[in-house]
């Protein structure tokens, strides 16, 4: 093999290695940027634009379930997981039961009237009437 041919092959191999390394680094940068963007989007507050109606609190209930995967106390009993539900009656006598956080559950009383905002089966907000 001629010395000039060997130099050309070596030169081409160097360019190929450089190109591959460049592509690997560029792909890594793109993946890192995509992961950061996904994380930022996941942490952004989600706004729900729901339906708003006048509604009355009809019924409240709590469901307790024992979760064997949850941490247990010194007596080796499982702490129950609580799910809070409130039933509302809309202005067109439409009845719906929505899952709410414990803070919302504790602020509402049966018979309260106000403005309910929900999206599908997801509770968004409830503003009690002042009258």
Topology at a glance:
Blueprint: H1 3-43, E1 51-66, E2 80-90, E3 95-100, H2 102-107, E4 113-119, E5 122-128
Antiparallel strand pairs: 1-2, 1-4, 2-3, 4-5
Summarize the structure.
This protein has 131 residues and is α+β, with helices and mostly antiparallel strands.
| Mass-distribution shape | elongated
Q: Enumerate how many helices there are, as a single number.
A: 2
For the biggest sheet, the summary is:
5 strands, antiparallel
CATH level 1 class label of the largest domain = Mainly Beta
SSE arrangement, N to C: HEEEHEE
Strand content: 35-45%
Q: Name the CATH architecture of the largest domain.
A: Beta Barrel
The name of the CATH topology of the largest domain is OB fold (Dihydrolipoamide Acetyltransferase, E2P)
Instruction: Quickly give the structural class.
Output: alpha+beta
- Classify the helix fraction into a percent range: 25-40%
Compute the number of strand runs. Answer: 5
Question: Could you explain how this protein is built, in words?
Answer:
The mean pLDDT is 83. The chain is elongated. The chain is built from two helices and five strands. It is an alpha+beta fold and 131 residues long. 5% of the residues are buried. It folds into two domains: 44 residues; 78 residues, Beta Barrel (OB fold (Dihydrolipoamide Acetyltransferase, E2P)). Strands 3-2-1-4-5 form a five-stranded antiparallel beta sheet.
Descriptive tags:
OB fold (Dihydrolipoamide Acetyltransferase, E2P); five-stranded antiparallel sheet; 5 strands
